[in-house]
Amino acid sequence: MFAAPMLPRGRGRVVSDSYLTVPPTHDDSGTKARMWLIAQDTPTFDEDDPPPKEQVASDAVVNSAIGRRSRKADFSCTLPGCKATFTAKHNLHNHLNSHYRIRNFKCAQCERDFGTAHVLQRHRRVCKGTKRIRIPTPGGN
């Protein structure tokens, strides 16, 4: 057998390529077969988790991204009702993490969390090291 690689953790449990639900066909390197076996044994989300966000980005953001593309989108979101497409697999993973509210990157100074490493790096340039406290407003707004 082989050792399972460390997979990113999200909201206290492992997140995997669990969309690999059908065993791969012939693969010379065997990588796809190994990843499929790992995905079958990897827990993803608990049943008591909140439902995924239906919309992650506004229509304006989606249209802007599509307009910048120079390549064909080979990856698409698998959630019902979401028509988002991507040219790179890592962008699909980040998108799915947004749907499920997974934020694996935390600022050591202020403890805010972020969905991607580059957004955390951008935050670190301006972080003052103070924790944000949300004060409820009258009327709940």
Q: What does it look like?
A:
The protein has 141 residues and is α+β, with helices and mostly antiparallel strands. It folds into three domains: 1-49, no CATH class; 50-99, no CATH class; 103-130, no CATH class. The chain is built from four helices and six strands, in the order E-E-H-H-E-E-H-E-E-H. The chain has helices at residues 31-40, 59-68, 89-99, 117-124; strands spanning 9-10, 13-14, 75-76, 85-86, 105-106, 113-114. The strands form three sheets. It has a two-stranded antiparallel ribbon. A two-stranded antiparallel ribbon has the order 3-4. A hairpin with a 6-residue loop joins strand 5 (105-106) and strand 6 (113-114). The longest helix has 11 residues, at 89-99. This is C2H2-type domain-containing protein. Keywords: Metal-binding, Zinc, Zinc-finger. InterPro entries: Znf_C2H2_sf, Znf_C2H2_type. It comes from Rhodocollybia butyracea. Residues 75-104, 105-132 form the C2H2-type domain.
Briefly characterize the structure:
The protein has helices at 31-40, 59-68, 89-99, 117-124; strands at residues 9-10, 13-14, 75-76, 85-86, 105-106, 113-114. The protein is α+β, with helices and mostly antiparallel strands. The relative contact order is 0.12.
